[in-house]
Amino acid sequence: MTPVELSRTVLRAVRRAVDEGELSVVVPVRAVVTPPGPGGCGDYATNIALQLARPAGRPARQVAEILRPHLTRSEGVADVAITGPGFLNIRLGGGAGASLVREIQRRRDAYGHGDILAGQIVPLRIPYDIRAEVVADTLVRIVATQGGRAEVHHIHIHPSRAEPAGTDPSQAKTAGNDPSPAEPPRTNAPQADPARPHRLHRPRPQITTLRPTPAPEDPTPLGPDAARWALLHPASHDRPRISADHLLQRESNPLFRVRYAHARTRALIRNAAALGCTGDPGDVPEDVPGGGELVGALAGYPAVLTQAALHRAPDRLARHLVTTADALLAFQHTVLPLGDEKPSAAHRARLALAEAAGTVLAGGLSLLGISAPDYL
């Protein structure tokens, strides 16, 4: 079950509670579903009870108690727990893994893409710096996955005159001899139409000034893939580490683990084909090493893409790929039959899950501008 599907499941639970007279509220258009925060449990959590508490005229925890049985009876939900002031913590099961794999198979490289930025222009202002260039280039692709269009504009900024994100370029002070530094195009507010007084003015695009901490030295000798990873994996306020460690083919190198995990999924598919086995989505038991973690990482990928686009933070995607790779590497040993064992439905379900992981890893690396080789 994907986060989008789970959000719809939560709304259906609210609608059932309203139809049965347990709650008197207007069913919201959207239910926010995220990974559990500190003190939470399960696979996902939602604050829908807190959102409905005031209109329902009840304490949030009481609203959560009303919604809990409706959620528990939903297909794909194994258990629901209430924590804190009324957060509903949901543990998936009963077909959730199979549904997730089918969704990834159906959408392929478009899995995780959304429309939260649909029709929006995202102006990005960057200095003439290699790390800023790479971050902006990556954000163009990540913003596009959410329906937006990023526009990159170069500026001259004196180090002592840093500007916060969202600064209007008309107020920016620039240094150097460039009399007219590049500015993002402005979107003029439409003129009021007397015949249509209800028409709202369209706001100007919010401008983001990207000034990640520069690399201490030129990363290009590392090669295109390792150089991009070195600049994108750390958070923007952290100084990137430029060293040959990014080229090492060993477990201590996160880039190697991500690319190796993708190559392993391709090898599993080739070896399974030699055994006459193909993937078929199915449930993977929770006691399979790495299985639950892998399902959780794949299910959380759309939310990570959304946050990376909204917060202009490609490092979130890079770190999530490491999490996904580590889960796959722990899970890979359970995929194929051992010895004289014949391929079973369990093997086909695990193979389909591994193949889905390969799709997500390849898609994420592509967004970062990094290759995903089939052999490594």
Short summary:
This protein has 376 residues and is α/β, with parallel strands linked by helices.
Number of E-state strands:
7
The profile of the biggest β sheet is:
4 strands, antiparallel
How does the overall form come out from the CA principal axes?
A: flat
Number of helices: 10
- The H/E string reads HEEHHEEHEHEEHHHHH
Can you describe what's shown?
A hairpin with a 3-residue loop joins strand 3 (77-83) and strand 4 (87-92). The model is unreliable at 162-202 (pLDDT under 50). This protein is 42% helix and 9% strand. It contains ten helices and seven strands. The protein is flat, with a radius of gyration of 24 Å. The longest helix is centred in the C-terminal third of the chain and has 23 residues, at 345-367. Helix 1 (3-19) crosses helix 3 (60-72) and helix 2 crosses helix 3 (60-72). The protein has a four-stranded antiparallel sheet. Strands 6-5-7 form a three-stranded parallel sheet, with helices on one face. The chain has 376 residues and is of the alpha/beta class.
Notable traits:
376 residues, four-stranded antiparallel beta sheet, 10 helices, 7 strands, flat
Break the fold down into its secondary structure elements and pairings.
Blueprint: H1 3-19, E1 33-34, E2 44-46, H2 48-56, H3 60-72, E3 77-83, E4 87-92, H4 96-107, E5 121-126, H5 130-145, E6 149-154, E7 208-209, H6 224-232, H7 254-274, H8 291-310, H9 314-331, H10 345-367
Parallel strand pairs: 5-6, 5-7
Antiparallel strand pairs: 1-2, 2-4, 3-4
